């Protein structure tokens, strides 16, 4: 059975920054596309990272995918019963429906990323996310946590060193799943 890693949390906790570590540490990524679903595939890891990641671009990942990507994701994992593993981060696919579908088809590991520095990060990146939008993401994340009934791993991402530490936790869990 394949493995799906889903990283979620409120905006500006560092989800994309953690995932970008995969591109720094591993080379030879190939583009992946299934209808509106885009990503990057690495044969060494047997892993697809969903989303669009462009070097030096602040907002990447599933946030760059179509708002209508959900049905294509569901069809993709139903149709192919993926022979590879999948990782995604971000709001576009991080929802209860996606997690339910993933649990039906794959081994699921959810990471909830938290940070005490989100207010400053919003200022630093000069984003236009409203308080109402952010409160909605807090509610959404809390609902997912309730749905998962504490069956997730919380990663604290406050300091620069936490990026590497959190990446190490994710890759170690992934390698344990793969028997490496």
Fold and architecture overview:
This protein has 180 residues and is an alpha/beta fold. It has a single domain (3-175), classed as Rossmann fold (3-Layer(aba) Sandwich). 43% of the residues lie in helices and 22% in strands. The chain is built from six helices and seven strands. It has a seven-stranded mixed sheet with strand order 2-3-4-5-1-6-7, with helices on both faces. α1 (15-25) crosses α6 (160-178) and α2 runs parallel beside α3 (96-105). The radius of gyration is 15 Å and the shape is globular. The relative contact order is 0.22. The model has no long low-confidence stretch (mean pLDDT 93).
- Count of distinct structural domains: 1
The third-level CATH topology is: Rossmann fold
Note the main sheet: 7 strands, mixed
- Describe the global form: globular
Order of helices and strands: EHEEEHEHEHHEH
CATH C-level class: Alpha Beta
Count of DSSP E strands? 7
Mean pLDDT: 93
What are the defining features of this structure?
single chain, 180 residues, alpha/beta, 7-stranded mixed beta sheet
What's the SSE blueprint?
Elements: E1 3-8, H1 15-25, E2 29-34, E3 37-42, E4 47-50, H2 70-80, E5 85-89, H3 96-105, E6 107-114, H4 118-125, H5 131-148, E7 153-156, H6 160-178
Parallel strand pairs: 1-5, 1-6, 4-5, 6-7
Antiparallel strand pairs: 2-3, 3-4
Helix pairs in contact: 1-6, 2-3
In short:
With 180 residues, the chain is α/β, with parallel strands linked by helices. It is 43% helix and 22% strand. The protein has a single domain, classed as Rossmann fold, CATH 3.40.50.300.
